[in-house]
Amino acid sequence: MRQRGGVMYYPQHYFARSKKNKYNAKSVEYDGLKFDSQKEALRYKELDYLLSEGIITDLQRQVKYLLIPAQREPATIGKRGGIKQGKLIEHECSYIADFVYTVVESGETVVEDTKGMRTKDYIIKRKLMLFVYGIRIKEI
Predict the structure, then answer these.
(1) H or E stretch covering 48
(2) pTM of the model
(3) Per-domain residue ranges of the chain
(4) Buried-most residue among 55, 98, 101, 112 (CB within 10 A)?
């Protein structure tokens, strides 16, 4: 922030910007909930109907699965005897499912993702979900 001729000038980062999606998906609001894309909102509407009809239960949104925990240096004992956590080397790797629900008839738990674009990161995380949890992601 600086002053020029009695007028205050602020750098651009002082103002909140609306987050633009990398793949031009428009965020949508439905039933008071925000969704990353119109496709995801439409799928929620379908699942909400199935939930009301009793075909599925336990509908959850944005469920996080830890694939690889954070990597840290070994912990040390501090000056006053407490344990000091080691320096973070790598952040955790996690997958956030769009929807998770249970099918009443079969008792099967379904993990769903509404995909417009399959990125390399997503493909790796899909493989890790199968390896770590034995869960196959249903792509819509």
Answers:
(1) helix 38-52
(2) 0.78
(3) 57-139
(4) 98
